[in-house]
Design a protein that fits this description.
Blueprint: E1 3-7, H1 11-23, E2 27-31, H2 34-44, E3 48-51, H3 60-68, E4 75-79, H4 84-92, E5 97-100, H5 105-119, E6 127-130, E7 133-136, E8 141-144, E9 147-149, H6 153-164, E10 169-171, H7 172-179, H8 188-202, E11 212-215, E12 219-222
Parallel strand pairs: 1-2, 1-3, 3-4, 4-5
Antiparallel strand pairs: 6-7, 7-8, 8-9, 10-12, 11-12
Helix pairs in contact: 2-3, 6-8
């Protein structure tokens, strides 16, 4: 049974998560503040953490930074903060996903499954498959259905990074830095152009993408 640690000071939220997660065969542990959450992470070694950003003793992003000093376990932010800057800060500091309260239990469970599934895979997995889309990192080959897709070097680099982070949100800042360099962090229009070109090559309907999804104001996710 997979173990989930909930770090949240709201008793009602912890109770709700206890009910939802237990009903779906997860073992649930709880922490009411950041300090206890960090300690519980070290001693309980959960499979996944649900972390609130507004904690009584420290900001959730600081808790995340402290956890990332000793653990790579998946962390999903669960917060009422909807502003893009909070989401970007959390993702840039190592969060695997971000769900805004109030949340749909079905969506949260899907995000949890995806994060745990991703964490169990090899980091250097050479072949990454998304139904009809395959990304062969060893041979630098992209296949849709049974057809090879010709990508430019920049298109391939973007798709490669997204594939290596399958199911996770990758921020615009991260992509811009990795593909173009630090001097291009404000050139988000570059990404929009190339994402559009990639979608034309890998999606059945580029206007309604099934694989390369936009997280508005934050970044992109390959699912």
């Amino acid at each position: 049974m997979e173990k989930i640690l909930v770090i949240d000071d709201e008793k009602e939220i912890r109770k709700l998560l206890q009910i939802v997660l237990s009903a779906n065969n997860y073992k649930v542990e709880e922490a009411e503040n950041g300090s206890d959450g960090i300690t519980s992470t070290a001693f309980l070694k959960p499979d996944l953490i649900l972390l609130d950003l507004s904690l009584p003793d420290m900001d959730g992003v600081e808790v995340l930074r402290r956890i990332r000093e000793f653990s790579k376990m998946p962390v999903i932010i669960l917060s009422v903060r909807e502003q893009e800057n909070y989401k970007i800060a959390a993702l840039d500091n190592g969060a695997d996903d971000y769900v805004t309260k109030p949340f749909s239990p079905g969506e949260l469970l899907a995000r949890i499954r995806a994060a745990i599934r991703h964490s169990k895979k090899e980091i250097d997995e050479p072949l990454i498959i998304f139904e009809s889309l395959s990304v062969d990192l060893l041979n630098r080959v992209v296949i849709v259905g049974k057809e090879d897709v010709k990508l430019s070097p920049i298109e391939y680099e973007i798709l490669k990074i997204l594939a290596q982070n399958k199911d996770k949100i990758v921020t615009q800042k991260f992509l811009l830095e990795k593909v173009w360099g630090l001097s291009y962090l404000n050139e988000s229009h570059y990404l929009r152009i190339y994402i559009g070109q990639i979608r034309k090559k890998i999606e059945k309907n580029p206007a309604r993408p099934e694989h390369l999804l936009t997280e508005p104001g934050i970044g992109y996710r390959l699912v």
